[in-house]
């Protein structure tokens, strides 16, 4: 939504060009030397919201393969899928540190699980 001097206006939806963005990433950003033999080398995990504004890679200036990032609505850490993912990471990797990152204005915290299930 864009707001100006008048009323807020919705911009027309334009599909995101995932294919060309991924090709650019592979060509210019991806560093093959950061791929550890046998899998990820990270020992740190971050759980944060799935809000597009929550990008730990950017706001912590992380390099590739530096942390595991798990994103879900409202940074709910006790959900079955997050617990299963963390259990797998603990078994399969050398993860030693976990951080839960909140953000301001999180819409995911406004809705209880029961409300979502009723929809």
From TrEMBL:
GO terms, molecular function:
carbonate dehydratase activity; zinc ion binding
Entry's cofactor comment: Binds 1 zinc ion per subunit.
An example Pfam family from this entry, by short name, is Pro_CA
Catalysed reaction(s) here are: hydrogencarbonate + H(+) = CO2 + H2O
Q: Which residues bind Zn(2+)?
A: 49, 51, 103, 106
Q: What class of enzyme is it?
A: lyase
The protein's UniProt keywords, in alphabetical order, are: Lyase, Metal-binding, Zinc
Q: Where is the signal peptide?
A: none
Tell me the cofactors it needs. Answer: Zn(2+)
Q: What is its EC number?
A: 4.2.1.1
Summarize the protein's role. Answer: Reversible hydration of carbon dioxide.
Give the family, as the similarity comment puts it.
Belongs to the beta-class carbonic anhydrase family.
The molecule here is called: Carbonic anhydrase
Organism, as annotated: Cladophialophora yegresii CBS 114405
